[in-house]
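Customer escalation, tier 2.

The customer says the design service returned an amino acid string that "doesn't look like it belongs to this structure." They asked us to rerun it and document both sides in this ticket. The original structure tokens are below, unchanged.
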């Protein structure tokens, strides 16, 4: 039987997705019913909008105290070490990503949670994946981040099948946002290009101009989480590994889109270690399962995203916020 979601704890709440998702969850469930947490302290602005607590996801005692204090029945687990940072410290990526997820799942069981949301990533795929990734394409990642996401998907499905814990997740593509700077992922170039265009009217990209990857604008990212969490569990054939598509483009196409609105923009290329990571991922994803099982449908394309991103960042730049 599906339990109602009432009180949500978000881990990694200061990250790119969490910092915006918390606001959307509070609109739906109430400001005091969504507890934000992160291992770093938050700004006064974040703290003034609802409850916030410092939380290391490996600290079980503090984790349980928050669950009991706020009667938490749902966890949105976003805390993770991303691909770029993870390749510099694979042991840390494994420790945080895997042990953190296991803690969340075990606490979900112990407290009979209504739902757990743990996102996955396009990093689950490797060089043997078709460039148009299917829902069931082989999962042979080349990064520790990807390894932890594959293991996480399998682990989440195990907890669903063995214990009946309602665990859900999507394979996020690169997420582009005007609110929070990028946090160490291989797709960061698709965010940095907008920030640098507004600040300096030029950008040096760390992957080649022909690099093409799946991307998504933050409003669609937030919508996907809210929609999947609200879907009836009986409609879901998949649970923790939904392919999620929106748009795909190479860097040159992205730069050309920026130039439509900033004609003097310049870009050059200096590929680094992240190029090989990007080359191992698919160009596009097939998200038929998400569309059929819970009605997924993105709203933004490249040009509408570019226009909105630049408008928002120009305002922030004028206010000296970037």
């Amino acid at each position: 039987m599906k339990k109602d979601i009432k009180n949500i704890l978000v881990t990694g709440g200061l990250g790119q997705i969490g910092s915006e998702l918390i606001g959307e969850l509070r609109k739906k469930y109430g400001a005091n019913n969504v507890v934000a947490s992160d291992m770093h302290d938050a700004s006064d602005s974040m703290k003034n909008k609802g409850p916030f607590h410092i939380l290391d996801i490996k600290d079980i005692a503090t984790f349980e105290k928050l669950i009991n204090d706020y009667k938490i029945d749902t966890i949105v687990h976003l805390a993770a070490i991303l691909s770029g940072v993870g390749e510099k410290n694979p042991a840390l990526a494994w420790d945080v990503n895997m042990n953190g997820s296991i803690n969340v799942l075990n606490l979900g069981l112990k407290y009979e949670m209504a739902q757990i949301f743990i996102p996955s990533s396009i990093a689950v795929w490797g060089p043997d994946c078709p460039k148009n990734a299917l829902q069931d394409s082989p999962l042979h990642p080349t990064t520790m981040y990807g390894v932890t996401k594959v293991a996480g998907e399998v682990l989440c499905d195990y907890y669903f099948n063995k214990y009946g814990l309602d665990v859900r997740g999507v394979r996020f593509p690169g997420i582009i946002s005007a609110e929070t700077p990028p946090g160490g992922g291989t797709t960061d170039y698709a965010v940095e290009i907008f920030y640098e265009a507004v600040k300096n009217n030029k950008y040096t990209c760390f992957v080649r101009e022909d690099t093409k990857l799946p991307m998504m604008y933050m409003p669609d990212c937030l919508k996907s989480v809210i929609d999947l969490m609200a879907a009836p569990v009986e409609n879901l054939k998949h649970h923790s590994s939904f392919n999620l598509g929106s748009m795909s483009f190479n860097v040159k196409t992205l730069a050309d889109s920026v130039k439509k609105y900033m004609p003097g923009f310049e870009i050059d290329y200096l590929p680094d270690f992240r190029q090989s990571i990007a080359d191992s991922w698919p160009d596009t994803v097939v998200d038929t399962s998400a569309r059929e099982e819970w009605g997924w449908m993105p709203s933004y394309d490249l040009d509408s995203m570019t226009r909105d991103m630049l408008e928002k960042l120009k305002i922030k730049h004028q206010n000296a916020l970037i």
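Tier 2 assessment: The sequence is consistent with the input. The chain has twelve helices and 16 strands. The first helix runs from residue 18 to 29. Sent an explanation to the customer and offered a walkthrough call.
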